[in-house]
Write a structure and sequence with these properties.
heterodimer; A: mainly alpha; MetI-like fold; 14 helices; about 80% helix; about 0% strand; disordered N terminus; B: alpha+beta; 9-stranded mixed beta sheet; 6-stranded mixed beta sheet; about 30% helix; about 35% strand
Amino acid sequence: MSAAEDRLPPLRRSSGSVGRIALIVLGIVLALLLLVAPLAVIFAEAFSKGVAYYARNIVQADTLHAIWLTVLTAIVVVPVNIGFGIAAAWAVTKFRFPGKKLLIALIELPFSVSPIVAGVIYILLYGANGLLGPLLADHDIRLMFAVPGIFLVSLFVTSPFVAREIIPLMQSQGSDDEEAATSLGAGFWQTFFRVTLPNIKWALLYGAVLCNARVMGEFGAVSVVSGNVRGETNTLPLHIELLYHDYNAVGAFAAATTLTVLALVTLGIKTLIEAKGGGDPHRPRH
Amino acid sequence: MSIDLTGISKRFGAFTALDGIDLRIGSGELIALLGPSGSGKTTLLRIIAGLEWPDSGDVKLDGESTVEHSVRERQIGFVFQHYALFRHMTVFENVAFGLRVRPRRERPAEAEIVERVQRLLDLVQLGGLAQRYPSQLSGGQRQRVALARALAIDPRVLLLDEPFGALDAKVRKDLRRWLRRLHDQLGTTTVFVTHDQEEALELADRVVVMGQGRIEQTGSPASVYGQPSNPFVYKFLGNVNEIAGRIEGGKVVSPAIEVDALENEDDIAGDVALFVRPHDVRLAPDPQGPATVRFIGVAGPFVRVEVLFDDQALLLEAEIPREDFADLSLAVGERVRPRFRRARLFARQPGQFDLNPEQVSLLSSNL
């Protein structure tokens, strides 16, 4: 088939070239306007009063703490949601059981709930005046307006990312490979680590990257439950907003650059892992 | 390793996949489970493997009940219809999989694994492709990798689900003969599922014809083809002319067609269904004959001739060897007198020969 396609004459090159160039130009212009320009503005504003001023803003204790808290949240939330995503996808794709459709809908629920609403729900449940508030207070557990609350809402908001990526893949792959592995004598974990996981690893990686990006950038839900205590419960997005409202534009943009760098690091790690899988013929090609 | 199936039944919701299957498979046999889709043949194969559980009944391997044993413990080689090769592993690692996942004390040393895998790859004639990935192989090669992988665990029984279903005709034929030789060489009890009667008849020692969750007939290829025990088996094993007939005193009195051999005239009398294979129909040009040639198809090893009887109620299909056809020099529109070399009688099913008006008008308009 591809050989036949190769032999096809360059169809409608003369008439198509104008449209093609137009599309390419449009693509470049949009990318510049929507992606590159905002990035450039962030860095330009951050460095507008010089490198020293920028560095002073970054090493501020509150900013450093916000960076740490953001990274910590990702370290806690992403692995949990990878585990949740795999377990949920496994359950709905490898087994037949009543209520399966409902479970799939539930997994996607956080996508359709506004993050602010999610945050409010958590306050109503776990807050001091919430449903479980007295119980938690009795045991001296404080979830809301504290770091655990940030973890909880971040978990909620980003829980569908991994599952959403791997469910369609696992559905299309069916259970044949797992059945084959079992018939060859492999146990549950052997089947999982040697067969299932390699089959879904690229989708899993992509889901984890999306999950990570959302955790680090989440504003709405976190702003409801964090309480915005500087140096204690402020994540980077919240910290950026605070600085901006303090009329410290340079500080806000400086903090924003760190968030940008975190995103770029995530992308870099993803690219590196994919490059290491270069010999794998099932590596996704872009 | 012998397999004993007793009273196997399986339902999926309201659908009865298997309905009381009893079957004994002898050690070293090569068995075909033949049937249309929905006949339960794949479900039965999966139950033998332990990939599916029967609602009732028992599977015994060498006399020992396996209902308590999971697929993992049964040591059964299963080749999946679409091979289910591990796509991220090389051919070598695919075949080695069953050895590598063994508990440490049973696992062969690396050198022995290498040697055994290489020997299996040589056996399936893929010795040079050990480092390829499944996506780099042809369909026939993937099939053989799947087979080598299943053989690596020294299976007590080999089960194959539609083993040639996804291959093109030429490869299918070669692989079929090769599998027969391999079976003769290894002697492993083997069961394969197919919907292709030619495949089952050519390859198997014994054919089990299945329909709607039941076993319709079991026997050697010659016996199921030669003596089909019911209309379903007769129809499933090849093309057939179904004719409303009447038997009196062991003779066909209607339709007025001469029959050389009635295969089971003792059993049945009165109104019957006459089953005749197209290659058992002979045609002779005869201006006084009761039928007219309506269509002649000359492609293939046989010439296909359709004749329509004057009363429009009977359309007959004949397959005539090419040389015989040349001698007959038939043409469309010519009158002929058909004769049956042999025919088989079955009791008439209710409504079997009720032509609806649409069919009648179609028959007459096409003439």
